[in-house]
Amino acid sequence: MEKPLLGILAGAVFTGLVQSSAATVGIAIALASKGFLALEAGIALALGANISTCVTALLAAIGKPPEAVRAAVVHIFFNIAGVVLWFFFIPQLAAFATRFSPSEPTLAGSTRLAAEVPRQIANANTLFNVVNTCIFLPFTAAFAWMATKLVPDKPPAPGPIKPAFLDPSVLDVPSLALERVRQELARANGIILTMFQNAGKALRNDDVEMMRSLAREDDKIDYLETACIEYLSKIRQHNLTSAESEDHQNLMVSAIALENLADVIETDLVELGVSAVRISHSRSQETRRLTYELYRSVENCILLLNSVLKERNQIAAEKILQYDNKIKSIQRELMVRKSTRLGSESEAALKTARIEVSMSDKLVRMYSLIKRITEENVNLEPATS
């Protein structure tokens, strides 16, 4: 114990074993009170205890968020830097502790040391921590920067999108909770609109990779639909008025219909598009025009659906229902065109025609789902055919 470095190591090892710096300092004080420990040796033990107390912080931070790990890192750096700073000034720290601690001039020899050194060790340990805090306090921002660099934020876990509006804190107020579901469904509809637009680009450019990438977007809709249904089930556990019960049912139907809408894009349209690329048959200009017009009509309806879901906008709902005749007319014209040319087409043309008819059928299916959602959310008479 005559060498400060060995004293620091002894204090660090013992504190690491017992997981308590207070226990180490307490034992040092007890030894000093029996005359077995000199002041500088006791200070070295206390410094070692301050280093190894960081082990407790590290163990506590295991498996915790980055903020907790950063706090442990700062604790380690603070204690180690403080010990390194004071290592070269142990004699001065001992002299300062002796000067400001009570003395026993009536005693002599080991008896006097046993009476004075325990208090001096305790005061030196207190002084060590107080002075270190004062020295490092202006550098808290630097410590925070260093800890952030050493322990960066975890990258977001790959996976589906998280709900943005389904707040558990408003479940006790069903009317507010139902409105949150409405906003989440409008958000899901925005994702579907982007999916549909990207599907259109991929089909026009025969981009198979882009078509297949839509599966990732469909996963988001699947996740949001599940989250909305679970949230609606929690709302149902509260007492609902008749109007709230009806709204609850409409939103449940809308959530399922939106998920089906995304499935038509991700499964049916993509599958048909990939098949069309493999056939590589040039379609007529008139067929392209009719298909594009049908596509644009459905796209406009998805865009209008956002206002229906978010605001129950009656004007938007009426516009969606007004597309009914137009979409049926386009599909009928496309069918007539394909049927009249059925006997004079090549094998590749026949396969392409089958894909085109199926494509139009899927687009009409999408419109039917949009129309269903519209009628569930806005009290309007369906447009007559």
CATH architectural name of the largest domain: Up-down Bundle
Terminal CA distance reads 99 Å
**How many structural units, i.e. domains?**
2
The count of strands amounts to 0
**Rg (CA only):** 37 Å
Largest sheet: none
Percent strand equals under 5%
Q: Label the structural class.
A: mainly alpha
CATH-level-4 superfamily name of the largest domain: Phosphate transport system protein phou homolog 2, domain 2
CATH C-level name of the largest domain = Mainly Alpha
Provide mean pLDDT, rounded. Answer: 82
Low-confidence stretches: none
CATH fold name of the largest domain: Methane Monooxygenase Hydroxylase, Chain G, domain 1
- What global shape is seen? elongated
List SSEs in N-to-C order. Answer: HHHHHHHHHHHHHH
Give the count of helical stretches.
14
Portion of residues within helices: over 70%
Describe the structure.
This protein has 385 residues and is mostly helical. It folds into 2 domains: 4-150, no CATH class; 168-377, Methane Monooxygenase Hydroxylase, Chain G, domain 1, CATH 1.20.58.220. Helices cover 79% and strands 0% of the residues. It contains 14 helices and no strands. It has helices spanning 4-18, 21-33, 39-52, 54-61, 66-87, 90-99, 109-136, 140-150, 174-205, 208-235, 242-279, 285-311, 314-340, 347-377. It starts with a helix and ends in an 8-residue tail after the last helix. The model has no long low-confidence stretch (mean pLDDT 82).
Structural features:
385 residues, Methane Monooxygenase Hydroxylase, Chain G, domain 1, mainly alpha, 14 helices, 2 domains
